[in-house]
Amino acid sequence: MREINRKVVKIQNEGLGEHCLRDLNDEINKLIRERSHWEWHIVELGCPNYAKHVAKMTDFEGNIVNVPNPSGHAPRYRYFGATKKLLGVRELFEKLFGLQKRRTRYDIYKRIDVSYYGYRDEDDGVLERVEGPIKAKVRVENDEE
To answer: In the chain, pLDDT over 90 holds for what percent of residues?
Structure first.
């Protein structure tokens, strides 16, 4: 993990040159692949699966990128730091993977209406069917006391 972190910090430097950036990116992907193999062995031994909580891939602007992978696992090859700005990589993000903009707080609140707060729960009648017998039972118990 430390080695991956050091290389990810190093790859943020845009002045390294294209070949050095590509080599660093390849090394990081190799280390991540090795780490995932170890995580798989840990799961086989019966320990918790920590690989489920993998960070999502983002492009240079911070937009979440949907990476289609038939196996359903995380993407096999990732681009880090300044490699996202290299010629060909930026176009790859723009063309192949549909960019999904991060939702702003305004977009999230825009979809919240009265039903979110539960004010329309009684309109469909489901709540009355579920709570009706229980309310009657509670009334009978209160009357007995």
So the answer is: 10
Compute the distance between CA of residue 58 and CA of residue 56 in angstroms, rounded to an integer: 6
Q: Which two tokens stand for residue 108?
A: 């999230």
pTM of this structure: 0.50
Give, for 99, the enclosing helix (H) or strand (E).
strand 99-100
- Nearest-CA neighbor of 32 among 77, 67, 72, 65? 77
pLDDT per position as a tens digit, 86-122: 888 777 766 655 555 677 889 888 888 888 888 877 7
The contacts found for 70-78 with CB under 8 angstroms, 24 or more apart, are 74/36, 76/33, 77/29, 78/28, 78/29, 78/32
User: What's the DSSP call for residue 104?
Assistant: P
Q: How far is CA 93 from the centre of its chain?
A: 17
Q: How far apart are CA 85 and CA 30, in angstroms?
A: 21
Mean pLDDT of the chain: 79
The rounded radius of gyration (Å) of the Cα atoms in the chain is: 26
